[in-house]
Amino acid sequence: IEMERGENMNFIYCYMMQNGVSEEKARDHVKTLIRNSWNKFNKSIAENYDRAPVIVNVALILTRCVHRIYQYGDWFGIQSQENKDCLKSILEPIPM
To answer: Residue 75: how many CA atoms within 13 Å on its side-chain side?
Structure first.
């Protein structure tokens, strides 16, 4: 998908070349890395929520939006309702 968008190099391509695996195997590896990162992040959220709920919520919202931006590409060309909702969640005032 990234190569179709005109990108020259990306993690999946580099992983394929370095490890001699198919694109499917490389994508599975990336999905595993993302899943493991989310698990660590969610554990950290759960452990720290009572101490600083506002900061934890901001971190969670920003992380979700960045993940969505990376996962679905260019937000300037694709203005879906999901993208708008994600941006709105960043810009709305945080209740104190």
So the answer is: 14
